[in-house]
Design a protein that fits this description.
The complex is a heterodimer of chains A (about 80) and B (about 425). Chain A is built from 4 helices and no strands. Chain A is mainly alpha-helical and about 80 residues long. Chain B is mostly helical and about 425 residues long. In chain B, helix 1 packs antiparallel against helix 2, helix 3 crosses helix 8 and helix 9 packs antiparallel against helix 11. Classes of the chains: A mainly alpha (about 80), B mainly alpha (about 425).
C-alpha cells in the first residue's frame, strides 16, 4: 500500500515506504527521532497545506493517528 | 511506629511472583476482561497493603482523584467538540488537574521528611476510621516512603494528557484502578502507558500462552539473577561515594566505572522482572533499557536508558513545548532534560545533571550538522568504538550528580582529577 502520506513519511524518515505501517511510531522506528519529527511536521504542513496545532501534533504518535488527525482536518490522501 | 525508611524492591517482586503463581490459574480460568482487570487490581492493592495498609489507602485516594479528574476532562473535552468556545476552560481545568496530580510528588521531593511524616501519620489515622485490624497492622509497620509515587504520578499525568488530546473517553473506576494498581510496575516502573495493558482489538485482555509463560519466566529469572547476583557482586563499588577522599585517582575511576554498571544492572534487572512477570499474564510491555552503555552518541543513550521515562518526556514535555518546531526545538529539549533530571530529585545536583545533558545533546546536534555539512563519515569501526567510549565517558561522568549532593559531587570530581 502506498499513498501520499506514507510517501511523505518514507521520504522524510529516509526509509522504504513498504516498511511503514499504520502503527509505525517513534517507539518502533529509530529513524523517527526528534529531528526527523521536526521535518515531518514541516513537510506535512507544506504538502497538505494545513496548520497543525500543538494538540494535533501530540495526537499524531503513529502514522495511523496522523492520518486520522489529518482526515479530520479535511485532508484526503 | 519504628522510624526507618528502608524498603526492598526485591521483597516486593518476590511477593508479586509468589502471588502470581497462585493467581495465574485463576486468571487463566476467569477469562473475562472485567474479572481479569479486577484480579490484577486487587493483587496490586494487596501487595501495597502488605507493605503497609496506609500506602494502599493513600494510593486508593490518589487514583480516585485521578479517576474524577480524568472523567471531568473527558466530559469537558467532549462538550468542547460541540462548543469550541469552552476550549479555554477545558485547557484551564486540564492544567489544574495536571498540577494537582504533580503536587504530592513535588511536595515529597521538596520537603521530603515533612511529607513522609504527614502521609504516614494521616494515612494511619485515616485507617482507624475503616478498620481497627488494618489500623493495628499499620501501626506495627515502619515509617515508609511513598513507594512508587513518582512512577504513579507520571502514569497518571500521561492518562490525563491523553484524555485532554482526545485519545481516551471517560474511563470507568475499574479501568483507572486497573491502570493505577497494575502490579508489576507499582514500585519501580516502567512508566507504562494505558495502551500497553488495555484490551486488544478483540475487546479482551491478552490470554497468556505457553510461549508467554516461557518468555516471562526466563525474563523474570534473568532479572532476579541480575539483581540478586550480578548487582550484589558489584554493589561494593558504591563505597567509593563515601571514601573517594582517601582513594587514589585510578581507584576512583575504576570504582566509578564499576558503579555505573552496578546502577544499570540493578535498575534494568528490576525492569526485567516487571516486564517478565507482566509477560506471565500475557502482556508485552515496552522495553525500558536497550544496551544504553553501548550507545554511540548521547541521543542513542537517552533513547535506550530508562526508555519509559524518556518516552513519557518526549510525549508530554518535548512535543507540547514545541519541540517539533525549529524555533522552539532547543527550548523544548532543555525542558525535557530538566523534567527527566528533576523527576529523580529536586536538587541542585540534578539541575546540574539536567544542564550537563542538555549541553551534551545540543553539542551533539551541532556536531552532527557540521559532520553532515562536511561529509565526514564515522562508519569506520575504530570511529564507532571511539564514539561509544566517548559517550560512555560522558555519561559516566554525570553519575556522581545522580547520587551525591552537588557540593560532594564537586569534591568527587576534584578527587577524580587529582585536585
Amino acid at each position: 500500500m502506498s499513498d501520499a502520506l506514507l510517501d511523505l513519511f518514507a521520504e522524510v524518515l529516509e526509509v522504504d515506504a513498504g516498511s511503514l505501517k499504520e502503527d509505525t511510531s517513534p517507539d518502533n522506528t529509530p529513524q523517527w527521532d526528534s529531528l526527523a519529527a521536526m521535518g515531518l511536521v514541516a513537510a506535512i504542513e507544506e504538502k497538505f497545506n494545513v496548520q497543525l496545532s500543538t494538540k494535533e501534533i501530540m495526537k499524531m504518535t503513529t502514522i495511523g493517528l496522523a492520518r486520522q488527525t489529518l482526515s479530520a482536518k479535511g485532508v484526503s490522501f | 511506629m519504628k522510624f526507618s525508611l528502608e524498603y526492598s524492591s526485591t521483597a516486593f517482586f518476590l511477593d508479586l511472583l509468589a502471588l502470581s503463581l497462585l493467581l495465574l490459574p485463576i486468571y487463566l480460568v476467569a477469562s473475562g476482561t472485567r474479572t481479569r482487570q479486577v484480579t490484577l487490581t486487587l493483587s496490586g492493592l494487596y501487595l501495597l497493603l502488605f507493605i503497609a495498609p496506609r500506602l494502599a489507602l493513600l494510593s486508593l485516594f490518589f487514583w480516585l482523584l485521578v479517576f474524577a479528574m480524568q472523567r471531568l476532562i473527558a466530559n469537558l473535552e467532549n462538550k468542547a467538540q460541540e462548543k469550541p468556545d469552552i476550549s479555554s476552560l477545558v485547557l484551564f481545568v486540564f492544567i489544574a488537574a495536571v498540577l494537582g496530580t504533580l503536587t504530592p510528588m513535588l511536595w515529597w521531593k521538596t520537603q521530603e521528611w515533612e511529607f513522609v511524616k504527614l502521609i504516614n501519620l494521616s494515612g494511619n489515622s485515616a485507617l482507624s476510621l475503616f478498620s481497627r485490624t488494618l489500623w493495628e497492622i499499620d501501626l506495627a509497620r515502619n515509617i515508609i516512603m511513598p513507594v512508587g509515587l513518582s512512577f504513579a504520578t507520571f502514569r497518571a499525568v500521561d492518562l490525563l494528557v491523553k484524555t485532554y488530546i482526545g485519545k481516551f473517553r471517560a474511563m470507568s473506576l475499574r479501568e483507572v484502578f486497573y491502570y493505577g494498581f497494575f502490579p508489576p510496575v507499582l514500585v519501580v516502573g516502567p512508566i507504562i502507558e494505558y495502551e500497553e495493558i488495555k484490551e486488544g482489538a478483540s475487546g479482551k485482555l491478552p490470554a497468556p500462552k505457553s510461549d508467554d509463560f516461557l518468555a516471562g519466566a526466563l525474563r523474570t529469572a534473568w532479572g532476579f539473577f541480575k539483581v540478586l547476583f550480578l548487582a550484589s557482586l558489584l554493589q561494593p563499588s558504591a563505597q567509593i561515594l563515601d571514601t573517594f577522599n582517601t582513594q587514589s585517582v585510578s581507584t576512583i575511576w575504576i570504582y566509578l566505572f564499576v558503579y555505573t554498571w552496578f546502577f544499570y544492572i540493578n535498575f534494568s534487572g528490576y525492569s526485567d522482572i516487571a516486564i517478565g512477570i507482566a509477560r506471565l499474564y500475557g502482556f508485552k510491555l515496552k522495553e525500558n533499557f536497550n544496551n544504553p552503555f553501548f550507545a554511540r552518541n548521547i541521543i542513542e543513550f537517552w533513547s535506550s536508558w530508562h526508555m519509559s521515562l524518556y518516552r513519557f518526556a518526549r510525549r508530554n514535555v518535548f512535543v507540547p513545548l514545541g519541540g517539533y518546531r525549529e524555533n522552539r526545538h532547543l527550548y523544548a529539549l532543555a525542558g525535557t532534560m530538566m523534567t527527566i533530571a528533576l523527576w529523580h530529585a529536586l536538587s541542585a545536583s540534578m539541575v546540574t545533571f539536567g544542564i550537563y545533558h542538555t549541553i551534551g545533546l545540543i553539542l551533539h546536534r551541532q556536531f552532527t550538522k557540521w559532520k553532515d555539512r562536511n561529509n565526514i563519515s564515522l562508519d569506520h569501526p575504530a570511529a564507532q568504538l571511539a564514539c561509544l567510549l566517548f559517550t560512555y565517558l560522558f555519561v559516566m561522568l554525570s553519575f556522581p550528580l545522580i547520587v551525591l549532593p552537588l557540593g560532594t559531587a564537586l569534591e568527587f570530581y576534584g578527587s577524580m582529577f587529582g585536585m
